[in-house]
Amino acid sequence: MASADEPVDNGEPQVVYKGPGYARIPQDGEVKVETAGKKTKKRGKADTLKVLLPIRPKGNKDRSDMDTSGLISTMLFSFFTSIYWKAHRKGINQDTLMPLMSDREAAAVNCDRLERLWQEEISKHGVEEASYKKAVLRFIRTRFIMSSLAIVVSSTCGFLLTAYLLFQAITYLESPDVSVGYCLILSFSIFVSTVVRVLGGNFSNYLNARSAVRLRSAVMMQVYRKVTRLRSTSTVSVGEMVNICVNDIQRMHDAIIYGPLLFSFPIFILFIVAGVVIVIGFVPTIVGSATLIMFFCIQTCLAKINVKLRQKCVVFTDRRTRLMNEVLNCIKLIKMYSWEESFAKNLANIRAHERKYLTRAGILQSFTMGLSVTVGPAIVLTSVITYSLMGNVVTAARAFTLLQLFGSLTGTLYVLPIALKPISESIVALNRIKPILLMDETSHELDPPSDPGNAVEVVDASFSWDAPPTEENGGKSKGQSTKYKLVNGDGDEEKKDQEKGVKEEQEKDAAASDGLLGNEGETQGPTVTLKNINLVVPRSHLVGICGSVGSGKSSLLNTLLDQLNLLDGRIAAKGSFAYAAQQAWITNASVRDNILFGEPYDEQRYKQAIFSCCLERDLEIMSDGDRTEIGERGVNVSGGQKQRISLARAYYSDRDIYLLDDPLSAVDAHVGKHIFTHCIHGVLRGKTVLFVTHQLQYLRDCDYVVLMRDGAISEQGTHDHLIAANGEYARLIDTFHGKAEDEDDDVNDAIPEIKHDDENMNKEESSQDKISEQKKGEEEETEEEEATEVVKLIGDEDQGHGTVAYATYKSFVWYTGSRFWAFFVPLLMFLTMMSSVFTNIWLSIWIQSSTIWRNQTQVPTSIPVASTSSPWLPTSAPFMNNSSDDIIINSTDAADEYDDDYAFSTPSGDQSPTGAGGMSIAFFMAIYAGFFFFTYICLIVSSFVFIITVLRATTRIHDGLLRKIMRCPMSFFDTTPLGRILNRFSKDMDEVDLLMPMNLQRCLFFLSCVLIIQIFFVFVFPLYLVVLVIVAAIAIFLYMMFRKGYCEIKRMDNTTRSKVVSHISATMQGLTTIKAYGQGKRFTTKFEELLDTNSLIMELFFMAPRWTAARMDLLSSCLLLILCALILVYKANLFSAAIAAMALQQAISISGGLLQEVILSCTQTESSFLSVERMLEYIEQSPSEAEPHIKETAPPDEWPQDGDLKLQKLEMKYRPNLPLVLKGITCHIRPKEKIGIVGRTGSGKSTLGVSLFRIVENVSGKIILDDVDVSTIGLHDLRSKLSIIPQDPVLFAGTVRFNLDPLANHTDDELWSALEKTYVKQTISALDNQLEAPVIENGENFSVGERQLMCMARALLRNSKVLLMDEATAAIDTETDSLIQQTIREAFKDCTMLIIAHRLNTILDCDKIMLMDSGEIAEFDKPEVLQADPNSLFSGMLTAAQHNKGSLDDE
Question: Do 426 and 252 touch, CB atoms closer than 8 A?
Fold first, then answer.
């Protein structure tokens, strides 16, 4: 790692190698591993400067070729040659590129340096005044300056020196002298000057690429590290983080790529102006410079406008990305509620606003490019007219030299807006990143208790999710001001409500790029979440924590994790923590990896964790046991399995203090009893355990009980003590004791004697407890075959192979709306460039005509030696001449305001002469002006039409992709990481919106220009065609060799970026768990590895075109050498010296970078189309569900009227090669019946819901709802008539109103009525904006119980005839549960209800009980009938329940 006192200016990291390329830099506390006994070498400035050696001998093979190449190899990017050759012959993969990985781009090292500079900036100027921009500039300044100097040197040689040599060549063409030697010297000199420009420019690009990747890695790593230390991530959503890391930091990368050009621009301008002064004098130069300054000011104003447009656009980009991320996370509920069209419409509306600003910015960008193209002729026009009016002569040599000088300036001005765009956008990005770096962090370091015998001490403490506005946190608390306070005071609610309120207010400001740009929140003090907390927990005690929904139970645990701000009082704890969240967080890894969670494997402890958390049976049925891969967000395991894995992780971690947040709510009662007996009250005895629960039957076995109410501790003490006190706790136990005990029992306890094929039954398990169970079936497809290989659930992303297919371009043309636009737009651009080139051709014709007239009037064609005034020229070829013997020839664009009577008069006062054929100079001027204005008009029109056409296509692709994703079946989402899908809507969309139009436009312009000029060259000198064919063949070979490898690298860039995005998303979702276990360093190390890999690919992707461009430029320089030699040697055979002079000038312009621009723009366009290809791949190849509407079989609008449900021989499997999950289910559920569905985990009860909603299509059988076969109607027609209250509550970012009624079909009175019936009205009415109060991402500003109640209110508003409740009250306390059951009986009395339950009290009053076992109905009858049969399974279950109740009473 870099030392703390490393020189700031150099920034070269110290390195550790242990193989080709980069060896990961050890983190703090890690031991640096030496390489096979080799000592680690420190390399600094001396090693860095070795790159300036022309040739370096082969050094250490363990080092990257980029670090050991000499100057010539570096400037030619020779380390790419073997890669391209291999790609052309065999193809390449990621391993092929790894040897090029350099430790100098290591994210950790560069991040450390940037962080040090940032801290120095803060220490100097304070938090408020510190400038993150200055820290970034200090980070890159040395290499930035070196790159700028390289550009200045190469540009000086490539443009100024070439302009001088061009003048000499044209002067020689006009003179009668003949000297072959002089011709060859001139030609070779021009060749050398262009080669110097090529090599110098490449060296600058090399430095820029490496500097940009270092900055990108450093900033992204710094932001990620900061996020892992945040106290809360509610002020930064996953979508915002993805947008910042994928798009904003990319702008900073691009700014470093183009920044040196902008930095060196004033110096280059100064040199150009000096050259122009030498050519035409001081006064005309002043006029031309004034024109340049005017254009530059216009461009600056346009750039500022573009920044504002970009700021407004990024607001909608953030919103679109954030909403898309939320849709993907909640896609299952969206499908079940048939909200796809609604959310797709919302996304499309956001996209429409985004497109509006994209269109404006794109047109503005095109107009800026138009100015860049026309500024050269405009400057020449004003300069030469001024020069002519002063009585001076403009010869062909002077005219084309001036055109070359201003042409080089035009090329720079053309790139200027391209450079200004990312630089201006990077300023916006820096302003977005700084607030994140200043957010409040958690240290997770608590003071030790005053009594060593205590594990936790909380004394007179009050806490808030809001950071108090103190000087210490300064700007950190700005984004966290209180917005509202919940009645119940639950920390989960208050925290997120406050922060979401701020975020929503900020997002409404379209002038800001997003919620991170400023603080629009209120400034009142923090809301107290927990107040006056006094709690002492002795070591090795089990403390049970209970209370109603929103009372602050989860917040109490979070205080120990330093998630809340301590307002007053004291909190102390000693020991390490383990944390099992109420909503378990599972990573995309194997079951074993999720349990080990970075800890070393201990077989005995691991087996104990499996047993105590009741996972043995689950592992038996999984296809690969504990090596079975769990999908992203745990999609292929049930809620209960996730909770048990999370609990096993906690036990295995072997910590001192265990924080268990209602871990038994999602498991079956018998499983819960097993876990409590063998884990919480078993193997964890001797540990300090804080156990939050709504299942009161376990509290009697706790050493201590805490009752929470309204953010405070209402009662605390032992169970017996609290019962004896006869307070609120005693009343709670007395009132709900029986129900609590009933809840502890399940059908699982009543059917142990039934012996079935456990394998078949267990194959359903993980999918039955959760509505997303189809994924589980996919996991188990190889079980019966006893597969020996681990089945990979999440497959590697198909990155494609080779170049972009022709079908991709064809599809893009189709999305533009018509083939007409595909031909009309390039035609417009071709006409534009033809007009631009013909302007110079006409200038040559004009000069030639004047020369003929001068010869006819016997005006001397040579300029007297005595009038030489230029220090550039020998005495035989003066550069400036004011002799009255010369005719004044205007060589620039004509302006209407200049009159022929004086603008073209001879010094003697005679009228302007006529040209060849009697045509006046006014005629030439009129034609010249016509071409000039025609070029300008064509450019504006073509740019406008182009942007409109391209953005029409990209928006249609976006909308098509969105519609396709919305219609994909759940199996697609279960096997595809969220980051992979989101990358299509973020980075790929950004690529086709912003980069592709610019690249494609440049490609069309430059291709047209090169094609026209080459045709002109062949016309001027036919022999040139032979050389052109040979060089073109070599160029085509190089391009074909390069093209395949370049596309492969681009695809690798896309796939490695997806992994980075997925890791960011996963980290933010599980940040609390990661910090609780102290795993931040491990996740940071993983992120570092992913980022370093992506940085290498991205660095190579930028450098890759330079390999070809360098060789193409060298080829064009060879063409220039041959063309110059042919023209100069055979000048006597040329029909026009002026035309030949124009050909030389155009050839120099091509070798001066035009051909490189063609290669770069073509390759960058193709790489942009790879993003189109990736999006089209999802559109065309992703699977689809059934149609949402089928007109022929659409049911009546009032269907279903009764809710009569019939299942006839229903069979279902999750995939064709898996066993049946439902096996011939037949039953009849009459209208308004309440059916309680019970059964062991894996018995098939939740699969009934999956089948009913057609999440998975049935194999055979029918589901008849009110005489309609649901398999024959559209999915929307079916799902919109059903309702579900899922086990995992889902809320969307937005408002309370939107979450209750996303389709806006209900009045306020109806909303409040639903809230009242679900006992959440009091909470909502206490919010500042009530129904309009913000809900943050995932609804995390409400407790889990409150989210569940709001989901119930949402279902109540739908007023469906069929309702499925899947453990809907698992996260609700027994008191609220009792009230909810009353609501269910009253509010849903007209519904047919299917109630999947583990708690017996929720189903005892049902009309019938359906007991499922192994995919079959074991019992189905009224509860009293089943109870009356002593042999029934249900009767046995009730007997077990009564037995447990009696045992409790005995206690």
Answer: yes
Domain ranges of the chain: 1-100, 454-532, 538-564+575-779, 819-923
Integer angstrom CA distances of residue 1171 from 319, 592, 845, 980: 21, 36, 46, 13
**Alpha-carbon gap, residue 348 to 963, rounded angstroms:** 10
Cβ–Cβ under 8 Å, residues 662 and 582: yes
> Residue 888: its pLDDT value, please?
32
Q: How far apart are CA 226 and CA 1123, in angstroms?
A: 59
Take residue 134 and report the two structure tokens written for it: 């200055």
What integer pLDDT is reported at residue 218 of this predicted model?
A: 92
DSSP string, 1330-1381: GGG-EE-GGGTTS-HHHHHHHHHHHHHHHT-SEEEEESTTTTS-HHHHHHHH
User: How far is residue 218's CA from residue 106's CA, in Å, rounded to a whole number?
Assistant: 8
Residue 1037: CA count within 13 A, CB half-sphere? 8
b/e sequence 887-917, b meaning 16+ C-beta within 10 Å: bbbbbbbbeeebebeebbbbeeeeebbebee
Q: C-alpha angle with apex 1192: 1190 to 1197, nearest 5 degrees? A: 75
3-state SS class at 933: helix
Output 386 or 1259, whichever has higher pLDDT. 1259
Decide: 421 and 303 in contact? Cβ < 8 Å: yes
Cβ-based burial of 361 (10 A; exposed 0-12, middle 13-18, buried ≥19): buried
pLDDT in tens, 141-168: 888 888 888 888 887 777 778 888 888 8
| pLDDT given at position 48 | 59
pLDDT tens string 804-863: 778 888 888 888 887 787 788 888 888 887 887 777 777 667 666 665 655 555 444 333
C-alpha to C-alpha distance for 1140 and 292, rounded to whole angstroms: 29
Q: Which token pair is 1160?
A: 């770069």
pLDDT average, residue stretch 605-613: 91
Contacts of 142 (CB under 8 A, 6+ apart): 9, 10, 11
1254: region left, alpha or beta (phi > 0 left; psi from -120 to 50 alpha): left
Rounded-to-integer distance, Cα 1352 and Cα 1345, Å: 11
What are the structure tokens assigned to 1294, written together? 């937005």
Length of the chain: 1451
Which whole-number Å values give the CA distances from 884 to 175, 279, 388, 854, 860, in the listed order?
Answer: 19, 18, 12, 13, 11
Whether 702 contacts 779, CB under 8 Å: no
Mean pLDDT throughout 1268-1293? Answer: 84
The answer to pTM > 0.85 is no
Give the C-alpha separation, 566 to 564, whole Å: 6
| Interval 947-960 mean pLDDT | 88
DSSP 297-308: HHHHHHHHHHHH
How far apart are alpha carbons 1163 and 348 in whole angstroms? 31
Q: Compute the distance between CA of residue 575 and CA of residue 456 in angstroms, rounded to an integer.
A: 9
- Tokens linked to 990: 């950004």
- CA 632, distance to chain mean position in Å, is 17
Please choose, from the candidates 67, 98, 61, the residue with its C-alpha nearest in 3D space to the C-alpha of residue 83.
98
**Other CB atoms closer than 10 Å to residue 108's CB: what's the count?**
27
Whether the Cβ atoms of residue 1200 and residue 1361 lie closer than 8 Å to each other: yes
Query: At a CB cut-off of 8 Å and minimum separation 6, what does 677 contact?
Result: none
Which one is predicted more confidently, 500 or 1065? 1065
Question: Does residue 931 sit in helix, strand or coil?
Answer: helix
User: With 70 as the cut, is the pLDDT of residue 182 above it?
Assistant: yes
Q: What is the CATH number of domain 538-564+575-779?
A: 3.40.50.300
Judging by DSSP bridges, how do beta strands 1408-1413 and 1392-1396 pair with one another?
unpaired
